[in-house]
Amino acid sequence: MPSRVWMYANYHCNIQCTYCLTESGPKVAQRALSPETMLAVAEQARELGFTDLGVTGGETFLMPHMPDTLAALSANLPVVALTNGTLFSRRLLAKVEHLAECDVALQISLDRPDADVNDEMRAPDNFRKVTQAIPDLVERGITVRIATTVESIEDNELDRLCALHRDLGVPDSEHIIRPIVRRGRADTEDLGVEAVASDLPSELTITDDGAFWGPFGPTVKDGVLDTDLLVTRTTLPLETPARALLGLLEGRPEGADSTLNIR
Length: 263
Description:
alpha/beta, TIM Barrel, nine-stranded mixed beta sheet, two-stranded antiparallel ribbon, Radical SAM core domain-containing protein, S-adenosyl-L-methionine, Aldolase_TIM, metal-binding
């Protein structure tokens, strides 16, 4: 059984990144999972033997319930929640403080060590907001991971980026670098590497539209959901898509889904 279950909490976002898999943005429909559904997924994932949970979007913290939902999810399994890191006002920081006592890590996107280059692919003022939010979260005892998503990066630039995240309080062990995958808006913008199912993590991913082969599966292009990596339209009981995914994996060697080092 693949170890992690992902949930797309929502699809809308406060920014509009150039390489976004799901064409997320401020005008996109929410297509959100309810807190009740997310908790049911977590409980059933634990019972089925999964070991971890992932929560992504859209921008997860546009959902007002997210701080409390993450805490509730972590009572079942460890959670990593993806966020662009731009919404952490003093009010939201106060609401997430209790996550320091939970098995929750916040994974924040930071692609370049220079504001202008970083913001060109993400959003105006993104770099400033992210580099302010990370130490604010670390200071409160919340685990922060940095995700860098790029087509390529020179050694000197990577060295400066790593020096930056260390200065912000994030160790090398909590920094991941991954390629842009040519799906969603990245495909429209002619960015990234081509990837098929065998290149992508086979981690069961639950959305409002169904269950997919990995978090790179439920992508959107030209406003239309991609279904090439759809596993089942049924999401609950979780055993249904889990068994379907296992059937697709039958006979595949362990690690065969990591050819592009996408994690």
